Structure formats: C-alpha cells, structure tokens
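In response to the reviewer comment on reproducibility (Comment 2.3), we provide here a single inverse folding case reported in full, input and output, so that an independent group could reproduce the run without further information from us. The structure tokens appear first.
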C-alpha cells in the first residue's frame, strides 16, 4: 500500500505537526491555523495534501470544516513500514 502521496504528505514538518494536533482531537481549519505562523492559503494547501494522501478527512458542519485524523491509513502505513523493515532483518539473519 506504500504510496507516494503518503510520503509526500509526511515530508513536510508543518503537515507532521498538523497530524500531531489532529491526533489529540478533531479541529477546524481556523483552529489548526492558530498553531502556525503561515498564511491561511498555505494551511489549506497542507490540509489538501493530507486529504489527498488519505491521512485526514474533512466534514462540513454549518460554515466550518472539521478535520479528523484517519488512523486507519496511519496504521496501515505503520504495518507496511514494519514489514519492510522486518524483511531486511530476516535477510540479514539468513545471510549471516
């Protein structure tokens, strides 16, 4: 499942911090923006990148959009990564 969108999303420190914020609770774009010293359009672009990677979901409630962390994708990627690392360990033991 390892996909380029996931790694592109995770390659940016602001986006990693957004994931950390959303791990605590769902937030609106405005609440997220309050934690960063960057423009609102930049915040929107970062959130779009996270959405495209499947890491966050967005739900409109009235005139606000609430962002949630999609733990399923994070967990799937963690399993993929651990399997990738596990394969290397096994190869090393077989070679030794």
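Designed residues, in position order:
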């Amino acid at each position: 499942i390892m996909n380029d969108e996931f790694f592109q999303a995770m390659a940016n420190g602001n986006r990693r911090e957004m994931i950390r914020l959303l791990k605590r609770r769902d937030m609106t774009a405005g609440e997220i923006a309050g934690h960063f010293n960057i423009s609102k359009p930049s915040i929107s672009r970062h959130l779009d990148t996270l959405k495209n990677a499947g890491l966050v979901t967005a739900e409109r409630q009235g005139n606000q959009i609430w962002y949630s962390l999609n733990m399923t994708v994070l967990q799937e990627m963690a399993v993929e990564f651990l399997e990738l690392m596990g394969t290397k360990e096994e190869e090393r033991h077989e070679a030794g």
